[in-house]
Amino acid sequence: MLFSSAAVALGLLPLAFSHPLEKRQNALPPVNSAMDESVLQLALYLEHLELSLYTGGYTNFTDAEYTAAGFPPGFRENVGVIADHEKTHSDTIATILTNAGKTPVPPCTYKFPYTDPVSFVDLANAITSVGIGAYLGGGALLTDDPELLTAASSIVTVEARHDAYLRAAVGGSPFPTAFDTALTSVFAYNLAQMFIVSCPQQLPITILPKLTVVAPIPPPIPNPPTPAGTPLKFNFDPSTFFVKVDPNAPLYIGLINMVTNVTFIETTSCGTGCVTAPVPKGAMGAAFAVLTTFNGGLNENQLTEFGALTAPAEVILS
């Protein structure tokens, strides 16, 4: 039922809404299990990272610098709005944990490899894609807690809108794929490590050996998309592997992308600790490459649990 103009004129509309709005504002979801807590702590860890990233994107460049780099009027202000959103996300998750008697993970010290507005936006796309993937992967672990799942879902949709806005501003497609890519907690956590200088408290998640994308780097937002068959080059240190690997054994890239889950691509050696692999047909958007000795048959959870030789490396394909 619509409120009458008389009610609005008499100032009754605020009174009609005050009680339900007050109730909703104070109704934060509970933390019902150790799994709930682990999902929330990782979400908070990544929100702290994004808050620092977007705060820097706002404070480190002026309106004039964004304009000179080709961004539309008001772009810097909107980067500041995104930073405000990340602060709200961080504060809300921390409050949910505190209300449950848990200690929220504190922020780390970060270092981001951007030098100008364009490289900042390219990096923000890559990092936000990791955050979106972590929420999608974490959501699957919250199926027994619909209130918490709804809260997480309401954050990930906003994160996706942030990413779409940034991508469009640099001439990329705001919606490069029909599906986003979910990430396991281990893979999302490892992807964040490249920006961490130090942390007062790390999460109890395994840090895997590093895999580095050599080409293309830094990660641009390609338009048009990277064609299938384009060689991707990766570096790694085989001495850091958790298991012994025969130097002559074939290695594969498990490429995690959209809902196809994992595509396994045989690599070509380019020397010790160096392989190349072609972009497979149909791969788009943000993809995540993991080095493995398996040539197929594993989903992302299995690749995380026992198939990965390295942490994932993010590759922006479109």
What does this structure look like?
- The chain is an alpha+beta fold.
- The chain is built from nine helices and ten strands.
- The protein has helices at residues 5-9, 12-26, 34-59, 63-68, 75-99, 117-139, 146-169, 185-192, 300-307, and strands at 109-110, 196-198, 211-215, 231-236, 252-256, 262-266, 268-269, 274-278, 286-292, 313-316.
- It has a four-stranded antiparallel β-sheet with strand order 3-4-8-7, with no helix packed on it. It has a four-stranded antiparallel β-sheet with strand order 6-5-9-10, covered by helices on one side. The protein has a two-stranded antiparallel ribbon with strand order 1-2.
- Helix 3 runs antiparallel to helix 5 (75-99), helix 3 runs antiparallel to helix 6 and helix 6 runs antiparallel to helix 8 (185-192).
